[in-house]
Specification:
There is one protein chain. The chain starts with 16 loop residues before the first strand and ends with a strand. 25% of the residues lie in helices and 22% in strands. Belongs to the precorrin methyltransferase family.
Length: 280
Amino acid sequence: MSLPSIKVARPGPQAGHVYLVGAGPGDPELLTLRGARLVQGADVVVYDNLVSPAIVGLAPESAERIYVGKKAADHTLPQDEINRLLVRLAGEGKRVVRLKGGDPFIFGRGGEEMEVLVEAGVTVEVVPGVTAAAGIAAYAGIPLTHRDHAQSVVFTTGFLKDGALDLDWPMLARPGQTLVIYMGISRLAEICDQLVAHGLSATTPAGVVERGTTAAQRVVTADLATLAERVKGAGIRPPALTVVGGVVGLYPRLAWFAAEADEAAHPPHAGCTVVHGPAR
C-alpha cells in the first residue's frame, strides 16, 4: 500500500510503545492512514480475529506477528494474558501495534488494555478506527440516523461479561432511535422478545449483517417478530451485527454494496431479504 505524504504534528513510531489501533470493520481499505503507517513501522503486531489479513500484511517482514483472536467460547489467549503480553513486549523496547477490529474503545476492550499499560508505566497511543456500527451499517445501506426515523443512536452488546443479558430494556426500546447490537446473534430471539415486551412494536424493522464490509457480506431484514427465525433459517453466523429501528426499512432502496447473487445457489427465504456482496 502506497500512502500519500501528509504532514502531521505527531511523532513517528517510538520504541517501547504500544499503539492501540482500530483496524475497521473488515474492508482493509477502511483502515486509517495513521493506522497503516504504524503497522508499517511495527516491531510486533498483536492482532485479533476480525482483523483483515491484508492489514496484518502491511507489517514489515521483520515484524513479529502474534494472533490473539477471540471467538465465542474460544479464546487463543485470555484477556489477562494479552494484557501481560503487551506490557512485556513494550518492556523489551519494541514498537507494538495492537490491532483491533473496529474501534479500540467501542466493545474492543481497548480501555481495559490501556488501564493495565498505563499502570505499568507504558506509553500508549490510541488510533481510532471505523467502528462496526458505522462501517457495516453504511455498507448495508442502513443510515443510522434519519430525520424521519431516528434522532439518536444507541450501541449495546448482546454478550455481557458474566453471561447474563441484563440490559436497560426500557431505554433500548424507546421509539425514534436506532439500536445497534454487537455480539448478539446467539441471544437474538431473547433480545427481540425483550424489546417487544418493553414497548417496541413487533413489526419494527430489524436486520442482521453478517461479515459486513467484506466480500462475504450478507444481510437479512425482517421485523422483530420474525427476525430470529429468519436469521436462523438463513444460516447467519458470527461475526454479525444487529440493527433495529425504522431506518432498516430503507435498506431495500439504499443497499449499494451487493453482488449479483446467484439466486439458484442462495435462494432467499420467504419474506426475508438476503443479499450477498460486494460488487464495485
